[in-house]
Amino acid sequence: MGFAQESEKLVNELIQTEYKNACKNWGDKYHSLHEGYAVLLEEVEEARSEFDKLVINTERIWKEIKDFNNSIYDRNELICLCKKATDYTYDTIKELAQVGAVLMKIKNTFEVKE
Fold first, then answer.
1. Is residue 89 a contact partner of residue 54, using CB atoms and an 8 Å limit?
2. Secondary structure class of 27 (helix, strand, coil)
3. Can you give the pTM of this predicted structure?
């Protein structure tokens, strides 16, 4: 499955928006590389946590599919799990956008302007 060009543009806009928001709320530069790394590490850990929830939920979806017998309960359970997976996907994307914003801020903080 390829990534649509329109989606790529939206991802870039999402990261840019998060970057602008971070600059507005906490300033446009980090005080040190260590500060930038600490913020990056926190955001990566949050993204990983959301992604781990998605992986666990996906494993539950697979179990439901393997055991599926087309009962109302099975259908409702599968729908519920898919809804949770969608929520975890959104949360992972939001956290990854913040990772991208932190990386932009680190780059912009320490980039040498000629």
1. yes
2. coil
3. 0.87
CB 74 within 8 A of CB 63: no
**pLDDT tens-digit map of 86-111:** 999 999 999 999 999 999 999 999 88
Contacts 24+ apart (CB under 8 A), 67-72: none
CA separation for the pair 78, 57 (Å, rounded): 11
**With left for phi above 0 and alpha for psi between -120 and 50, is residue 68 left, alpha or beta?**
beta
DSSP alpha helix (H) spans, 2-71: 5-26, 33-66
Burial 17-51 (b: 16+ CB within 10 A, else e): ebbeebeeeeeeebeeeeebeebbeebbebbeebb
Tell me, what DSSP letter sits at residue 114? -
